[in-house]
Amino acid sequence: MHCPFCRNPDSRVIDSRTSDDGLSIRRRRQCPKCGGRFSTVETASLNVIKRSGVVEPFSREKVMSGVRKACQGRPVTDADLAVLAQQVEEAIRQTGSSQIDANEIGLSILGPLRELDEVAYLRFASVYQAFESLEDFDAAIAQLRADHAHRQVSASSTTDDVQ
User: Fold this and answer.
1) Were both Cys, which of 95, 99, 120, 161 would link to 70 (CB 3.0–4.6 Å)?
2) Contacts of 137 (CB under 8 A, 6+ apart)
């Protein structure tokens, strides 16, 4: 790390702290030559391999813009989309891989989006799971209904246990 004041190629770390989101480290540094102090922020790089083979840095904003299209006309706020994008990034980082296929990102969006808004989920899933017919939609809707029924049974048994 070069000193931004005198361009000395050496610096000493004085303090290190994890950022609020836990995805980066802020380091306070001091130049041994001029004594200047400066901060750096370090993050682990996460790259996306697109279908064309091009590699680019992961972008929460791109996740949000892609999901925003599926959420048009739905009661979903930008704050909801920001939380979803953060959940997706955290899930991808937990895989431990520094590169991930763009399609894998699309698939990793499905779970959090399903919890956020089921109509938007169906819109998004129809693209990323390559729905080809009405039967594909019927199967996805049947799965959503089955999951709703399962949650209702689980919720009622939980309340029975409490009484």
Assistant:
1) 120
2) 122, 126, 131
Name the pTM for this structure: 0.68
Cα separation values, 35 from 22, 25, 40, 74, Å:
29, 22, 16, 55
Burial of 124 (0-12, 13-18, 19+ CB in 10 A): buried
Element (H, E) at 98: none
Closest CA to 4 of 29, 38, 27: 38
Best CA proximity match to 140, nearest among 113, 100, 102, 101? 113
Confidence (pLDDT) at 160: 52
DSSP count for the chain of H helices, then E strands: 5, 6
CA distance linking residue 18 with residue 9, whole number of Å: 24
Which runs of consecutive H residues, i.e. helices, occur in 8-163? 60-70, 78-94, 102-116, 118-128, 134-162
Q: Give the strand pairing for 24-30 and 37-43.
A: antiparallel
Take residue 75 and report the two structure tokens written for it.
Answer: 């009661």
pLDDT at position 67 is 95
Tell me, rounded to whole angstroms, the distance of Cα 116 from its chain centroid: 14
